[in-house]
Design a protein that fits this description.
- By secondary structure, this protein is α/β, with parallel strands linked by helices.
- The chain contains 14 helices and 16 strands.
- The protein has a ten-stranded mixed β-sheet, with helices on both faces. The chain has a four-stranded antiparallel β-sheet with strand order 13-14-15-16, with helices on one face.
- The longest helix has 36 residues.
Length: 492
């Protein structure tokens, strides 16, 4: 049997709510038809989650099939990913695959296990970014999503046609600060996006949620994030801790076109009298307009790749995966960013096609996690899965849509980065089908949620009368998972 090619497309901070295949009201105002094609031609995963909701650690978990405490990359501030350890691309390379990664790496190290790599410097810039290769660092002129797409198709053109390939195309978009391509500056200028019911959450009963610094209308940088200017007809962004914002890498002509595109909306902010609540809602709309316009170029990129595969006869034997490194808040609880174990950032999108092996249009309900990606791809590529990988192949779920009786009933999550950016407390927890238990060890605080009754996770029912039994069951499940995954006592 011919071994499949693999294209693993990962964006950064792309929320399920912004992928129209998932059906969220926000996405219906800004559909993603090309990403949706992967689901219509394959599988849509409804309960896929990350193990540590932050960029670098999620990428490390995907590469190794292991939780953060085992792969060693627990925080974005780590010194660097240990590239000497076993990874998915290394195993594929050893088994005859040609491997490549193009785009965002963000692991403070040089990639290993890849025959070709061209990665963004750190987070990368939206305009005219620097790319690092083994030989040098090159500045490429253009919009980052388009550049990554062009570099990807160029590699596909010049690869070794006698080998199967494993290609990771990692987009920067739609990472903060959500700068759209010029062609999309005004795309959603007049679109009013639905406001989440929890936008003005008061965080009652949730200590860590009340202590965060990721609120759209209080914590976003007005210049850097919201593209707000100093006054009427101004071509100067409001001051923020990163005063160069995204303008530093733009040419003067690009800067001029940027300010012209936003001028009417920015002028309106100063000429229309608003209450504080109305200003908070204005900021939500500006965030959504930019975020979803930035997603648009990613969707176009996916369409280009799918069209390339079909035009070159590669579509029938190529596994295509679309995911993001974690979920993201689109105004839920008043937030942007990620980190918490709440559903919007704990959950991560996953769409996967593989003609003749995955039935078109199926939906997967079983609990899956990013540590499962490596073992699943090895399984589909007919390569033995190493015993020390902590994830599990979900090949059987993807092929028929049914969840095996012996499939996992719970997931483990652990976020370590505190003190840190956005002031989200370190925490860990367990999720089962209906309930979720979270522990903030430094404060020794617990949170318990009934996801069925309270999908927005507003009501912390830990300690309530009548929850004793389910609390005990979840605490036992949590201890079982920590033992199973070898979590050291110092992290419990």
């Amino acid at each position: 049997m011919q071994r499949p090619n693999v294209i693993f497309i990962m964006s950064d901070d792309h929320a399920e709510q912004a992928i129209s295949a998932y059906g969220h009201p926000i996405s219906q105002k800004a559909p993603t038809p090309h990403i949706d094609r992967i689901a219509s031609e394959g599988a849509l995963f409804l309960n896929n989650y990350c193990s540590n909701s932050i960029c670098g650690p999620s990428r490390a978990a995907i590469l190794t099939g292991k939780h953060s405490h085992k792969n060693g990359f627990m925080q974005n501030g780590n010194r660097g990913f240990d590239g000497t350890q076993q990874t998915l691309p290394k195993i594929l390379q050893q088994n005859g695959y040609e491997t490549a990664i193009i785009g965002k790496w963000h692991l403070i190290s040089k990639p290993t296990g890849f025959d070709h790599w061209e990665i963004l410097n750190d987070q990368g810039d939206y305009y005219n970014p620097y790319f690092i290769t083994e030989r040098d660092t090159v500045r490429r002129m253009g919009y980052v999503t388009d550049l990554i797409t062009n570099l990807t198709t160029d590699w596909l053109e010049h690869r070794d046609k006698n080998k199967p390939f494993f290609l990771m195309m990692h987009h920067k978009a739609p990472h903060r600060n959500w700068v759209p391509a010029e062609r999309h500056y005004k795309l959603y200028e007049n679109t009013a996006f639905p406001i989440p019911e929890t936008y003005f959450d008061d965080y009652e009963g949730r200590y860590a949620a009340a202590q965060q610094e990721m609120n759209i209308y209080r914590d976003m940088y007005e210049g850097h994030d919201l593209k707000m200017v100093t006054g009427i007809d101004s071509d100067t962004l409001l001051y923020d801790p990163w005063p160069h914002a995204f303008l530093e890498t733009m040419t003067q002509a690009e800067q001029k076109r940027f300010f012209a595109a936003y001028r009417d909306r920015n002028n309106d902010f100063y000429t229309t009298k608003r209450t504080e609540k109305e200003k908070a809602l204005w900021k939500f709309q500006r965030y959504m307009q930019d975020y979803l316009a930035t997603v648009k170029s990613v969707d176009e990129s996916v369409g280009e790749i799918l069209d390339y595969l079909k035009a070159n006869g590669l579509d029938k034997n190529t596994i295509v995966i679309y995911t993001s490194d974690q979920g993201f808040y689109l105004g839920e609880h008043g937030w942007f960013d990620k980190r918490f174990m709440y559903e919007e950032s704990f959950g991560m999108p996953l769409l996967m096609s593989y003609p003749k092996h995955i039935k078109p249009g199926i939906k997967i309900d079983g609990l899956t996690q990013n540590i499962d990606f490596a073992p699943t791809l090895l399984d589909l590529c007919q390569i033995a899965i190493p015993d020390d990988m902590q994830g599990r192949s979900f090949k059987a779920l993807a092929q028929n849509g049914r969840t095996p009786k012996d499939w996992r009933k719970s997931l483990y999550y652990h976020y370590y980065e505190y003190p840190g950016f956005h002031s989200v407390r370190a925490h860990y927890g367990v999720k089962m089908e209906r309930y979720k238990l979270m522990h903030f060890p430094k404060e020794n605080l617990w949170e318990l949620y009934d996801i069925k009754k309270d999908p927005s996770e507003i009501e912390n029912i830990y300690g309530r009368k009548g929850t004793e039994k389910i609390t005990q069951e979840l605490q036992q499940e949590l201890l079982m998972l920590q033992d199973k995954y070898g979590v050291d006592e110092k992290y419990r």
